[in-house]
Amino acid sequence: MALSTYSQESQHTVSGNVVDNFGNPLFGASVVLGNNLRTTITGEDGRYILKFIPNGNYLVKVSYLGFISSSREISLENTSNKKLTINFTLTESVEGLKGVSIKTKTEKTKKETQGFAVNVIKTKDVSPRNIQTNELLNTTVGVKIRQNGGLGSDVNYSLNGLSGNAVRIFIDGIPISMYGSSYNLNSIPPSMIKNIEIYKGVVPGHLSDDALGGAINIVLNNDDKTNLNASISYGSFNTTQANVNGLYRLKKSGFTIKSAIFHNYSDNDYKVSGRSVVDTGLGGVQTPITAKRFNDAYKSSGVLFQTGYTDVKWANQFLIGLNASKDYKEVQHGAFMTITPYKGRFLKSDALLANIIYKKKNLFTKGLDVNINGLYGKRNRAVNDTLAAAYSWTGERAIDYKGDEYDYTWGSQQEGGPTLAKIKRNVASIRTGLSYAVNKQHKILANHVYSGVDREDSDVLVSVLENTFKGTRNIYKNIYSLTYEFTTFENRLRTSVFGKHYQQKTTSIDPEIKTDANGVKSIVDEVVSSNIDQDGYGFAASYAITPVVTLLASAEKAVRLPDETEVFGNDGDNVVANPTINPEQSKNYNLGFRFGTFNIKNHDFSISTNVFTRNIKDRIGLPLETSFNVDDELIVYVNQGSGTSKGIDAQLSYTYNRNFGLNFNISRFDLKIINNNVEIDVPNTPFYTMNGSLRYSFKNLFQKESRLNIFYSMYFTDEFSYLVPQGSNTVGNDFFKIPQQLAQDFGLSYSFPNKKLVASFDIKNIFDKPVFDNLSVQKPGRAFYIKLNYTINKFN
Predict the structure, then answer these.
(1) 83-85 and 12-19 as β-strands: parallel, antiparallel, unpaired?
(2) Up-side HSE of residue 104: CA atoms within 13 Å toward CB?
(3) What region holds the TonB-dependent receptor plug domain (predicted)?
(4) What is the mean pLDDT of the chain?
């Protein structure tokens, strides 16, 4: 019988850990003291705590579905020690396994139940296949990859409708834009990636950047075990992709060497058709044809080398290294597919960047962690366009209405005139993060990211005088964030509150020679500059209603600063400068839940959903008034106005006996903006998408200890238009509509008994359906690929 005294002196605390037979913490175990006098559930680390217990004798009982309950009698008396520790080890119940059990949280699940609208992609199972990182992203709920063609073409990422530069891409927290076009997501094989974190709408403070619509963070493998992975694939359109990456570590000293080499090539000579793919004959008669792209080859290669120390007393990771890459890209047309394609226009890029990484947990004192990641170097880009001859989609010389071959009067493929333009950049970026865990309930994080670009433009084909006075373009950005995380209500409620401060300075200097009224010439610098200071803030919270039902909510006032291309333009991407463009802002809200993971006998399943809204101000995009002009070669980014985006996405994951897997997700939203005082749908935006995938594994099919995996994927995109509605008369609008699209892929992979060699075969777009994306630019049709992947994890 418990005593009924509740004086301060007689109050006790009972705490401890609940684990299984293997020492794994059990999350969500029920802990009951007495006749429900005190109750709680264990946290993710298996720990529980019961407070304010009066003197007396009690029975503490711990239960967990699928396990045999355990209980222990305790006696609490008036002693100086008011804290009692009791640990429990539960044994699995044979009968319980036949019913319903709840699995402990994996690292992926923990990340997805922190309160943010986040999805985590694990790459381990798919890395042996011929799948690019962008394809992995395209299967994720709420994510849509917008790509202008085949391998090496321009890519935009859309998260819940916000796309382009509103979505920031990171590699281990460093903005990928700092690496240049020659080192992109398709240059990083999945075998080098630990996981991919996709934050939609609300971005946590540790990724302190101006991500308005969300962020994609590529977390590279940080395993300090010696390993080697090599793969090569070949397929349609003469596409070759090869990479080798590995790590070698001396156990005693911790000295570590990491390196990676990659090479990609494709002719991209796939077939295209449609409104702009025609053959112009005598009299200007245009005949629609199906043609092969002929000036669209892409080649990239690079090497990453790092050396330092891992898992030593003074650092968990200290690495310095170099990242060198280059690429070559032929340009088939401008921003749109036009009637007369380019031939002879191409781009070249290269980058040489030094990098440093330092990570240390419990620096100087327990709970203080530091993370520093920086890079510095040079990036160059060249645009070559000196051929005046006009060409048709047949690949032959274009003819005029008389039947004569002709040259462009401006002397180049693009209307700007012949160019051998070069852009030289000095780039620097450093991210610093500090976190201090006051205790298990409270944590403080401070982060800062700096990025700077010093850019110089030149062109040997302009006059000597113009080259003498070269223009410079500089952009510097600082973003600070402060985050406070706390956990309460027996670990059920987890909250993160953060604030961000954004600073950006841009300067454009163009020396000019001016003549005064007396005919005296002088050099005058035309300077255009801007300074931006903005503040943002937000929160994310999760509440475990039960161990397997979690409510998630997050909100943020986000700011997105215009980037280098939007401010200064880029000849290679056919973008015109706009130095007066303003930053865009958005108030983002998410509300959702996660249900599971449940295990019923051999069936595992989970369901998650998210309702969202985005209130956008000064949205950056293409001018709405001219979005219908598909003959334009050049584009310019402007502030379109204010708008709203509302929608919902949901995802179902199911596995059976670990052999069969099913994933299905759906995303539907609207995105409207005020144009001339009229609310309209934003053009060139797919509002309704569905993705699904199936997987089945056969063990020991041809050889013992072998595994054959069969994969199927489908991608559905509903009809959308890239034309702004032109009044009430909709005649002809169908010409600008992109029809419903359903692309389906099929794949096989065979893992040999030694677990080192995996062979795979993939068919993309099985039924060769026309697939379009940005501004109706057609993407590749049916394609076949084979791949060999070899991994060594142990060295004798």
Answers:
(1) parallel
(2) 18
(3) 112-215
(4) 84
360, 332 contact by CB (below 8 A):
no
For domain 12-90, give the fold.
Answer: Immunoglobulin-like (2.60.40)
DSSP state string for 447-465: EEEEEEEEEEEEETTS-HH
Give the number of residues written for the chain: 796
Radius of gyration of the chain (CA): 30
Pick the closest to residue 566 from 458, 638, 627 (CA basis).
638
Q: What is the pLDDT of residues 721-745, one digit of tens each?
A: 877 655 555 555 666 788 899 999 9
Whether pLDDT at 110 is above 70: no
Q: Residue 592 CB: number of other CB atoms within 10 A?
A: 21
Domain with CATH 2.60.40.1120 in the chain: 12-90
Helix, strand, coil percentages for the chain (3-state, nearest 5) = 10, 55, 35
**What is the DSSP track for 410-427?**
TSSSSTT--EEEEEEEEE
Contact of 751 with 760, CB cutoff 8 Å: no
User: For residue range 640-676, what is the model confidence (pLDDT) as tens digits?
Assistant: 888 898 999 999 999 998 789 999 999 999 988 887 7
Q: In which band, very low, low, confident or very high, does the pLDDT at 160 lie, cut at 50, 70 and 90?
A: confident
Report the topology of domain 107-161+164-792: Maltoporin; Chain A (2.40.170)
Give pLDDT, residue 107. 61
Span 356-380, average pLDDT: 93
Q: Do 609 and 592 touch, CB atoms closer than 8 A?
A: yes
pLDDT at position 409: 92
Tell me 753's DSSP state: T
Q: Give CATH 2.40.170.20 domain extents, the chain.
A: 107-161+164-792
Q: How far apart are CA 80 and CA 341, in angstroms?
A: 86
Report the half-sphere exposure of 311 (CA within 13 A, side-chain side): 12
- Would you list the DSSP string of 524-573? EEEEEEEEEEEEEEEEEEEEEEETTEEEEEEEEEEEE---HHHHH-BGGG
Looking at the predicted structure, is the pLDDT value of residue 629 above 50? no
Per-residue pLDDT band at 299 (split at 50, 70, 90): very high
Residue 34: which residues within 8 A CB-CB, separation 6 or more?
2, 56, 58, 59
